[in-house]
Amino acid sequence: MLGGDAAGGGDPVSGRPPAMRGVRRDASGEASLEAVLAEVAKGNEAAFRAVYDQAAPAVLGIARRVLRDPAQSEEVMQEVLLEVWRTASRFDPAAGSATAWIMTLAHRRSVDRVRSEQRAAERELRAASAPVAYDEVTDAVEATLEQERVRRCLDGLTDLQRESVTLAYYGGYTYAEVARLLGAPVGTIKTRMRDGLIRLRDCLGVD
Amino acid sequence: MRVRLTWPAFLRRGARRRAGSDLHALVGAYVLDALPEAERASFERHLLGCEQCRDDTGALSEATAKLGATAVVPPRPDLREQVIRSAGMTRQLPPAVPAQQDPRHASRTAGRLAAAHRRLWLAVAAAAVAVALAVTSIALGLHLSSMQNRLSAAEQRDSAIAAVLTAKDATTLTAHVQTGGTATVVMSHRAHALVFIARGLSDLPPSKAYELWLMGPAGRTPAGMLPPPGHHGMTGPMVVGQLAPGDQLALIVVPAGGSRNPTSAPIVLVALGY
Predict the structure, then answer these.
(1) In terms of CA atoms, which chain A residue is nearest residue B31?
(2) Distance from CA of residue B261 to its chain's centroid?
């Protein structure tokens, strides 16, 4: 069989089915998340609670991945959710999914925090001691098809594409820093980032 | 030119030309938030006047967001009320008025492109069925000949199966069935469908049968009774279409005639990541 992990892990039939907790879990559940965001834009607090429940774990997840520091990650998570509340009216469903909008906010905020608070020297030290971020993709809490898909699609990239994409995304490095870490010319890294994401997009079947 | 001279050497090497194709090459780094601040700002200015770049950026952002999908960390429970309280004390931005909304044009284009893309994909999938069936059925441990026989027997259903198996985004996951055997699910988000195959399921008394159910936020829907096992103890393939957001696939033991509302617990539950 092709599949690696058992779908339900050790206990596929625990009384509580694995709920759709993260934004990212339900790629197409965005329709509803978008509808909820429209309510948030009107100042609906109950709708905001629903958005929080759906988005906060994924937002905190990416913040932790990039920042590592639990306290800073919690701050970023709160900032991002407040930003969602504040700017919900500016979300344009025609321009992209609600999940992508929120995850973009979350990632950018995390990266901005890294860049403003840490000096380059510290970052390089961290890079030297940190394992390649890509490996962490495998510590999924629950094996879901979504995670399996992402993992499989990352495996489909060339090494340089994958390392460029994951060091930038999970590591929060600039392309110039990635180039330095990988010992490749910056022009090559920029191209690999783009080509890698294109391949990832095609593999994930994102329209 | 003057700007270029002020850049550090390692940037200068990659920045031969600042306009056109060089900026297009930055779309990956931009989406990954891997541009230094100054370049991010100039890329965003460029986006305003480059429809193609906006389309590219949008599509790649969706893919990038999925990378974030691999890490979920439940926040401390007390943070929830804290955030809700802060929201209550934060004024929201008014919606952008139409004059400010130039992305609108881009959105329509993106929609058209996506539709065209979907049509193209369907055509490709249909054409690729024969070849890819061979490849994927080997991967699934099926006998090609038996697959082809089935194709002639129930062409419509099997072309649906083939569409899933040949989908570029098809993902395979194997799970242990609690009562014995394994279940394999091949799913394509694009096709909104999955193919289910089980192997080595335990024999049931004549009064019982296996049934697939979709369990979603909107409720539960039956997705087909499993046929009796065929060669090598294999059951299926079954195709389940029209997947909805939040659906999970469950295999349940039900009375032989099927069940309107199964009461026994699923013996396999697969989160579809939908």
Answers:
(1) A104
(2) 29
User: Is B210 within 8 Å of B252 (Cβ atoms)?
Assistant: yes
Instruction: Tell me which amino acid residue A60 is.
Output: L
Q: Which of B71, B96, B267 sits opposite A90 (nearest CB)?
A: B96
Instruction: Identify all chain A residues contacting B273, using CB atoms and an 8 Å cutoff.
Output: 25-27, 144-149
Q: According to the 3-state scheme, what is the secondary structure of B246-260?
A: CCEEEEEEEECCCCC
Confidence (pTM):
0.53
Average pLDDT over all residues of chain B: 72
Which residues 227-266 in chain B show a CB within 8 A of chain A?
Answer: 244-246, 248, 265-266
pLDDT digits (tens, 9 = 90+) for A124-164: 554 444 443 433 433 334 446 777 888 899 999 999 999 99
- CATH ID of A120-207, from 1.10.10.10, 1.10.4080.10, 3.40.50.720, 2.60.40.420: 1.10.10.10
CA atoms within 13 A on the CB side of B116: 6
Burial degree of A204 (CB within 10 A; 0-12, 13-18, 19+): buried
Name the architecture of domain B2-65.
Orthogonal Bundle (1.10)
- Match 């089935």 to its residue by tokens: B150
Contact A205 B64 (CB under 8 A): no
